[in-house]
Amino acid sequence: MGMRWIYLDHSATTPVDPRVVEAMQPYFTEIYGNSASIHRFGRAAARALEESRRTVAEILGCHPTEVVFTGSGTESDNLALRGVAFAQRRAGRGHHLIVSSVEHHAVLNTARQLEEVFGFEVTYLPVDEYGMVDPDEVGRAIRKDTILISVMYANNEVGTIQPIAEIARIARARGIPFHTDAVQAGGMLDLDVNRLGVDLMTLSAHKFYGPKGVGVLYIRQGTPYLPVITGGGHERGRRAGTVNVAGIVGLATALRLAQESRESENARLRRLRDRLIQGILERVPEARLTGHPTERLPHHASFVFRGINGEELLLALDVEGIAASTGSACTSGRPEPSEVLLAMGLPHEWAVGSLRLTLGKSNTEEDIETVLEVLPRAVARLREMQAIEV
Ligand SMILES: *Cc1c(COP(=O)(O)O)cnc(C)c1O
User: Fold this and answer.
1) Is residue 1 part of a domain?
2) Which of 8, 181, 158 is nearest to 105 (CA)?
3) d(CA 102, ligand 1 centre) in Å
4) Which residues form the Aminotransferase class V domain (predicted)?
């Protein structure tokens, strides 16, 4: 028997559900028409596209015309920020944006570019020790010329769920469009845009057992928006480019399946996650949970271990057959501590030793027990080696 690999990096990406692959298959080979074509090949593709749009709209509780399909979560974040910022400035409403300081780079670096290259002003909201935004801070940051607020639904690095509905109420009372990056919440948390009160929302299929390279941007009817990708009139002029029908069918199928099993699967993941958190905090000295202790994603466990290098720990775990992450796939490869952990006030010698374990459908109790055996040894060994080096 070979080694059983344990995948604990579902916040980076998930495997595609075989039922999703099956649903996508015909759109590569048989129903290959361009959904913009008039003939029967095109019409068959357009039917699948519009059915997928209705599926997504039903889960979001919105009108199908408010659903825009994009090429990724990153693209949706880019379109939301630039699309609204440029439209608002063009209408003379101002040039001030508010984003949280713990956003994914897709939002953070877009905000920074709007600031540095396009002359917008950005307020980066602070977070508390759990990585949570205080809605009162949002209220205080609003100015007469504020044109967009963007706060993520759940954080990818530390799993904290933000008080989105409260922030949305504050934004709406002041007439300011509110975007949320809901990529980590997709398939796990309530996505009803009216209960949440959001005007724009980003999703990405590969985070909920769908294919990579396909996303959603929900845009509430009447939200100021300037198309960022111009070309043909696809997606009602909001995102040009020949539509990725197979990917979109995959996205809609994956979201529907995730929605159907959401409650039972979340309960199962929560049990495994709590066992993992409790076990690690008991067995590893100088370990801390990062992110909120209760307001966190059901599959998400994240830690810091004082005095170790998170990247070295990942390699040690990989050798033992465990795939994990330091927090954000996009920042791996660099030895600096995560900006998110620093924004939460963690000292440098803790922040460099971060580990994120994110559970998914394939994980079992046995996986958790294996991690609880392997991890304490790995951390102890890294600390010993460091003591020798010094
Ligand atoms: C993964 C992720 C993204 C990027 O989505 P892609 O489809 O991979 O581009 C954006 N925001 C958050 C919170 C994410 O976790």
Assistant:
1) no
2) 181
3) 13
4) 6-370
